[in-house]
Amino acid sequence: MTDTSRRNFLRGAALAGAGAAVGGRAMAQTPDPAITELPPWQQYLGEGVDAAPYGMPSQYETHVVRRNVPWLTADATSSVNFTPLHELDGIITPNGLCFERHHGGVAEVDPAEYRLMINGLVDTPLVFDLQDLMRFPRENRIHFLECAANSGMEWRGAQLNGCQFTHGMIHNVMYTGVPLRLLLEEAGVKTAGTWLLAEGADASAMTRSIPMEKALDDCLVAFKMNGEMLRPEQGYPVRLVVPGWEGNMWVKWLRRIEVGDQPWHHREETSKYTDLFPDGQARRFTWEMDAKSVITNPSPQAPITHGPGRMVLSGVAWSGRGTIPRVDVTLDGGNSWVQARMSGPSFDKSMHRFYHEFDWDGRPLLLQSRAHDSTGYVQPTKDMLREIRGENSIYHNNGIQTWAVNEQGVAENVEVSS
What we know:
five-stranded antiparallel sheet, sulfite oxidase activity, 7 helices, 25 strands, Sulfite Oxidase, Chain A, domain 2, alpha+beta
């Protein structure tokens, strides 16, 4: 069949089939050039297999990037950017989109010069190079990493218009590494050793105290994420993984682990990463990340563009204490709730994907999600949190998020009284 006769055939088929639903959309009376005409990409050979030795996203997806909010911090070297949650699906965050949080910028560590020291209350102080670590038995685990300050700008009311900015200080990847307990066993922890000090090799010399029980339970000394070596901004070549606990404890560019008999009370666990209460007192050592969820679509950066009719609501939920067996969603600000459909794998201390399909009639919506974790904990409203903790905190805000969607499908960050 020639190109001319082929186009005539397709035009005729399009006209003959007008009004018939195909894939949920009626075929138009006017022929659609996207169907009847050969697009450019069918008329010339594409690039060969060596054009991009390291694969990159499509040129049409260049808008899917991490973004920062310049006014949040004085300088980008001690700042944060945000994962574009509204552009993602499933539970795995691509390596190039995992949010960054730095206190002294990215450390560019030469793997040939990398060393990890274990000292303090141990029988034998040890130093490992990268090849030493890779000779230990390794494990693969999928976990979320959430900054304790995720949603921190929302304590006093709706601030940032987009789930990338309200909830994007999180990623969920597969980590490959050595269980920390194996390295501690190699060094031999003395009976008095009940705490660890993890220290990073960046310019800020990041340090955090970690109780021995957690170190021996599920911590990893990781060198890979999603199958490839860590990215520099994620701690290359080695970082600590502390599942379910606040991201500041997942020390990047890990260079030293000191065993001691008490916490060190360093800067990042005294002046920061404590929760200020209304009476001026602060909670310390609030390590675990409570159950939390957010609707990613629709949301302020992902409006409804197709108009009324069938649509899919999507979101993610997670808990630092286990799994998420259930998520509820509401379309009317909490007056009525329905159980969302959970989809995909369910791992301990990992993101979980949920969906809710419904017919939108074009009227305004007040969208919320509410996570239930495997311990029975239910995600609270923001008002419930404020009753106990006030509005002076920055960290551990896991309150229910509300998006208001208008008749045009545009979403906005709002709050409703609970």
